[in-house]
């Protein structure tokens, strides 16, 4: 797969925030191509390069601003510092994410979910679920 600048940006972001999607070559290709087309169309419409980049970024990252993976990492760092070495939190989050999917599926996750009132409910529920998993020996 040829990696354009937009595809590379998306791949980097996915590795950091949505590692479960980082191997989806079709997703990366289609989003990267759509972002490149959006950028090109914006330039042709008279937008500045900065404006075109913003338009392309909206296409590239739509639906990806909220990250369950990053939320789990944050919870491990903030709530379980005595139990989990912070250096191991990202690896553990990868293991925990599939087990916590029922918690996340209860909510309508959107790009601005972290700013919603439901975020604190999700956070609290996820903390409890993680605590239960850790007590059951998932580490």
Automatic annotation (TrEMBL):
Pfam families: DUF1896 (PF08989). This is DUF1896 domain-containing protein.
């Amino acid at each position: 797969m040829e990696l354009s600048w937009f595809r590379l940006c998306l791949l980097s972001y996915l590795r950091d925030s949505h590692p479960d999607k980082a191997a989806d070559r079709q997703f990366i290709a289609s989003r990267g191509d759509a972002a490149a087309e959006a950028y090109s169309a914006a330039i042709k419409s008279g937008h500045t390069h900065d404006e075109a980049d913003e338009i392309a970024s909206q296409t590239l990252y739509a639906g990806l601003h909220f990250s369950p993976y990053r939320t789990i990492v944050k919870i491990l760092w903030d709530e379980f510092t005595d139990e989990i070495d912070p250096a191991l939190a990202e690896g553990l989050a990868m293991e925990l994410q599939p087990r916590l999917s029922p918690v996340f599926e209860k909510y309508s996750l959107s790009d601005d979910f972290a700013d919603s009132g439901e975020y604190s409910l999700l956070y609290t529920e996820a903390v409890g679920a993680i605590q239960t998993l850790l007590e059951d020996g998932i580490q």
